[in-house]
Design a protein that fits this description.
The complex is a heterodimer of chains A (about 100) and B (about 550). Chain A has about 100 residues and is α/β, with parallel strands linked by helices. Chain A has three helices and five strands, in the order ββαβαβαβ. Helices cover about 30% and strands about 35% of the residues of chain A. In chain A, strands 1-2-3-4-5 form a five-stranded mixed sheet. The chains are: A alpha/beta (about 100), B alpha+beta (about 550).
Amino acid sequence: MPITTFTSDQENEITINISGRFDFRLVQEFRDAYSGITNPDARVVIDMHDAEYMDSSALGMLLNMQKKLGMDRSRIRIINCRPHIKKVFTISRFDKKFTIE
Amino acid sequence: MKLLVGTANELQFRYYQDLLRGSAFEFLLAQSGPEVLRLAEFEQPDVFLLDRELPQMDGFETALRLRTQAGAVFTPILFVSRDSDQDDLARLYLAGASDVVMKPIDANLFAAKVAAQRRTRQQNEEIQRDRDELKLARRLREKEGALASRILARASGDALPTAARLQQFFQPMTDFSGDLMLGAMSPRDSLYLLIGDATGHGLSAAISAMPVARIFYAMARKGLNIGDIAQELNRDLLGLLPDDMFVAATLVEINQQGTRMTVWGGGMPDIWKFSPDGTHTAYSSQHMPLGTEDDEEFERDILIVPIEEGDRIYFQTDGIIEAFSPAGELFGEERLQTLLQSLQDEPEAEARFARIRTEVASHLGNGPQEDDITLLELTAGPLEVADTQTTVSQAVAMVPWSFDVRMDAEAMQRTDPVLQLIEMMGESPGLSGHKDILFTILSEMYTNALDHGVLGLDSRLKHEEEGFVEYYMEKEARLAALTDGEVHIHCAFQPRGESGQLLLRIQDSGAGFAFEQVLHRDADDEQAHGRGLALIRTLCEHMKYSEGGRCLEVIYPMVFS
């Protein structure tokens, strides 16, 4: 599965693991991963550890998620990015909208 | 303990035994000089008790011979003499007597003297044992030392390359050097140097220096970035060395043209540059020594120093500047700097270094050298291009190539070619490290050509989250229904020495679009679409639309690593 979701014990941190290519093929699956989040205090972690490639459709999907959940920068963290993926985020100024680690 | 009694008189022998009852000696009797010598050889007695007069060979002669045939351990000889003549006594001692008992025998004195000789013998044995152990230990150490020295020499490699531009003063304090001076040529003919100083000196320092050489050679020969090499070394040493040990080091890359020096310096004395116009510049280490910082805290920042032909650059460990004279005076930076400055008019490198050696030796005087000494001089200028196997194979391997892929409707329905094309290109030498960025570029290009060109989809659908999904559903539907249409992908790789470029061109059979407008539109931060072109523009050197927006060409530049 390219996307797996994990909810912490307190149910306020949801980790979404992306693996392989992060592009439009994952649009529905990615949407399903976050659409169940209703807890207003929830935080989301996007773990890019196993994501090898990414294109701009993934950027769109992330922005959509942010809009849908109405979360600010501090509540969505994108972690474990490979250098080039981080570069793509930086070029697209995503560090203003997400916490990128 | 064996006591050999040399006396012609058996009664006398019994008498001695009687006097020494309870002394735990095993008593041996020899009734003539030659018999004493024979028994001595077989029985290895611990103490001799000899009569002054003996048949066939008197006491003097016997003692003299005993001394010459004696083993490694000194054996005390106690004489029993009737004669109290001083000269005669002196002769006895000269012949090898340890003590003399006078007749008539005083029982107490006799027992005490024998006991004293016995103690002497025991002490001698202990000394001999210690000496044997020491000898063995020394032999072992020498053997291990020779082995270690051989391994270390092999690990730290051979002579420095491009010797013509390098002059060195390398003088370890012992057989083992805690200082390191390594050099290697990279595949792009740049020169890599490492001048290092491991904590302490001698074998322990040399051992901590060992992994440094291995990693340095492996990475320098691949031409990797010196910041990366430094980080790898740091990581390795951090795991290997105890907390109080580390390796101060300067890593340097000099480009083949000899115009640029890239430096990572950690905990080392300044690098000095003397220019032909008389100016002198110092460059300090900016970092902590290798093996001290956690990987996350490690700083890979490098210093780039422009250099010109004729500049002389000096790298050193603290061996010279921290050398003390016998009077306790430091050599010091200033003295070395002044010395080097004064040597700049000397055209012969050998002569310059002969002077430096002399100055250092005269400063040290009779005193000991207390640390390893390393001073390396590099005269800037174009480096010899090594005619090595690696250069050749690299050049042969880096062939230019190009290929074309035509995706017709059926092919586009069946598969997305981007990943496969990236994997194919990644097989080419020089490109494997660029696969991830190339994926992003090619994926943007192909998606645009397919979505907006062939399928005629409108990005505006993607304004809303729902639209986003709708967009991709629409894409799937249109793609499934596609009967004609084509995307033509052209990839061309052109290596040029240490860098190269990849040209990517994608043409589609669609209606084209008003690319001028799109190109001049800034990506809206809030929009979930419209970022692809901005990405491509940032990642590529050149980006050009033609054929009414149906053809997009980009050039991706790369430096090989």
